[in-house]
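To whoever is on call:

I kicked off a structure prediction for a single chain this morning and the downstream step that reads the tokens threw a length-mismatch warning. I double-checked the sequence; it's 178 residues and nothing unusual in it as far as I can see. Pasting both halves so you can look.
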Amino acid sequence: MEEVNYIKHLNSVFLQFSKDNRLNPTHISLYMALFQLWNANHFPEVFYVNRDEVMQLSKVGSKSTYHRCIKELHHWNYIVYFPSHNPYRGSKIRLTIFGTSCGQVVVHNRTKNGTSSGQALVPIYKHIQTIENKNISKQENFKNSNFNDSENDSKQKNSVLNSDNLKTTKNKNYNEPL
């Protein structure tokens, strides 16, 4: 069994989903539930699933919808489905492995507005300049501030803190209804 790269696999699967017009949200939800179980089992080649558990994870409420979608995923080669027909033993599932190349994934389809998939580079002097500008502007604001205004502000804030907006009293009568 070749090693599965979680991120590359999901990116490849979502790319496949976007190209496939046959899929509906139930198919995608069911596949994601199966992928979650596959991941929980550490990506074995084949794993067993419990229908009720998969239906709960995928939020599929109908057994007929579950069976229809899992068979369609099988026919469309997203999974290989081996039904057990035994209520005490789960069905076997093998997920098709997508996007597990050894090299780095390179995205060739760029958007039209000029954005790239790479990391944006910012010159180092921009950060230094920004920090210096902030410090200078704070010093100038401190020099230009009027101390009388700050005293008046503190008096107003203290009076607001002491005001009782809820109009409560310290002597409460707990026998009265609210």
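Update from on-call: the warning came from a stale cache, not from the record. Cleared it. Sanity check on the structure: The radius of gyration is 31 Å.
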